[in-house]
Design goal:
The chain is α+β, with helices and mostly antiparallel strands. Strand 7 and strand 8 form a beta hairpin. It has 6 helices and 13 strands. A 5-stranded antiparallel sheet has the order 12-11-10-9-13, with no helix packed on it. The longest helix has about 55 residues.
Amino acid sequence: MAADEEQELHDRPLWTAECSFRGSQYRYLGHQSGVVGYVKVKLLSAKNLSRQDYSLLSLGVGGRLGLGSGPEISPYMCFSVGSRSHSTSAVRGSCNPSWKKESFSVPLRKGDFEDGAPVILGVEGKETQTIVESVMPSTIKGDKSLGVGAVDVTNVVLGDADLVDTWISLSHGGSVHVLVGYEPHGIEPAKGDVVALEAFARNEGNLVLGKDDPLKVLDSAGNYLHCSYRMGGGRLGAVKVHRNSVFVIERLNFLDGIWSLAMKPSDAVLSTKYGNKAAKLARPYVSYAGELAKPAYYSGRLVVATVKTSVNATIQGAQAAAGAAVGAKSPTKL
């Protein structure tokens, strides 16, 4: 399953037996479900918006009768990050609109950015058409653009800043006031995990740490992780990274520990000179036996989860029964 999952991913960290569980593929590569995190945006206001495109119905009598857009703009904003976008609500009749409750998140997806490329939040102001404008063949098709703009939010995504409060200038004039934050997605890195850099954190000019190198989390303090990695020549190096910069690729659990402990005697034998020779001869059979053992191993994990669920259900049922009994003895007075 891990091998099949890895083939579908955009991010493929450098594989090392040292960082994987018993020399297999990294097992936690898919926990983010294709989403690195969420760029969180709060739209506050815009000012000095102006239109460049006019429909025929906006001119003369049509404008006065309300068939086309009047002198005031009815704007809304369309924000985008990579391949995903979000459109806000419209404010009727204002070139200087404000939004009281316009907060949303745009997913930052894996594969949308090249390694080391900045994360850009794009915005396009648009003006809604009237019903008559939308059906008349002689008018501009689609909502009219009020201009486009963009802001680099890489520092927020990397964790260098908690929040960005900025005005984004639009190409047709005017600007948009936004607050921008970021929330990572996936398993929270913990001590003992093996992690890898997200695409936006990979720097080709970094001579210390390779952009695809796996890192082992030694400790954490707040939003920062103290990690070790294998340097050239085999030595271990250490580096501090922000939690936003990495994602989990391997994590050991309780059953993994039991499995490794059970395999230690055979590992000791196979590590000897004669054990290596025997392993080469028996490799096809050992591999086949390992494949047969996997269903039992994963079934064991399922059984443990089922028992935990049953115990929790029993406790909750007992609590509910006790509550019902107390309620029967002490009826509520109206």
